Please model this.
Amino acid sequence: MELLAKLTQTPSVPGREDRVREVIENHVREAGLFDEIRTDAMGSLIGIRRPRPKDGGKIDTPLKVMLAAHMDQIGFLVSHIDENGFLRVNPVGGFDPRNLFARQVRVCTAGGDLPGVMNPSGRPIHIATTEEKTKVPQINEFFIDVGMSGEDVLERVKIGDMVVLDGPFQEVGDFVISQCLDNRVGCWAQIRALEKLEHHDCEIHAAWTVQEEVGLRGAMPAAYDIAPDLGISCDTTLCCKIPGVPDEQRVTVPGDGVCLKVMDSSTIADIRLLEDIEAVAAKNGIKCQRGVLPRGGQDGAMIQRSRSGVRTAVFACPVKYIHTVTEMSHKVDLEAYPALLAAYLEQL
Model:
């Protein structure tokens, strides 16, 4: 889990994916996973891996497969610095304000990262009114305190600097816990699948995309450029088998394997493609499950709609407490994800 831990601890919000892209690029170059690697104008990292047939022959017109895992995590950009050094921020990605109270954060500046704390404006519990104690603040009511004078903050922090929630990567029981498993798990799974894959007749274009959390913005230009015959989105999905959520709304079950998403609000997966992947899973004894997400989307939507349309499937790791600093994924599901992806690519 060392690589996954490193990915989760590398700050990279939409439009600021440079750091995690560097981690991924360094790893895949050192591992020799691709024949070509480039970064497109939007900042997505794209690796091309030509066919590697088992018999050593040549494939003249290989099936072109696009993999897409978004690199960005939800976070904030600094939008205002007041005279006392308190920062106001604008979200890039979807947050539930109930999860933002008393959080440690990292403010990423050109001169280095600054630790800080995020809290809503207002009085502490000892002097708060009854109404204040029960109110859930809006995102724009939160501020960040980096423990420095206004003058020092103004010298160090700029409008537009990236801010991320700061939490450790841990293994707890059968799960791993961290910030931004959405979607560093997908990034990790693409790498691990390609490391497992020895022979394949298809041509693989693996993209680690940008700005998914603010509207799937990086996947569309990447898909237009690649012009794939088949697309596979590598992401995460909800796992709500927890107290307070009706069983019919659980979406996935932890430990039942990687999710093959039937649909979400952005994509309806190609059902024959999904069934083909399920057949590969059954043949190889790899756990998988189907899931339907009522709301939310992922990069598969942009692949599917590019040019004249592309048959697309969606792999997604079940994640409990998604879009928080304590996201949880079951180790069985993490193991099944790259195993099934590699097994499917191998037989194309």
The radius of gyration is 21 Å. Residues 2-73+179-346 form a domain with the Aminopeptidase fold (CATH 3.40.630.10). DSSP finds nine helices and 17 strands in the chain. The CA atoms of residues 81 and 87 lie 5 Å apart.
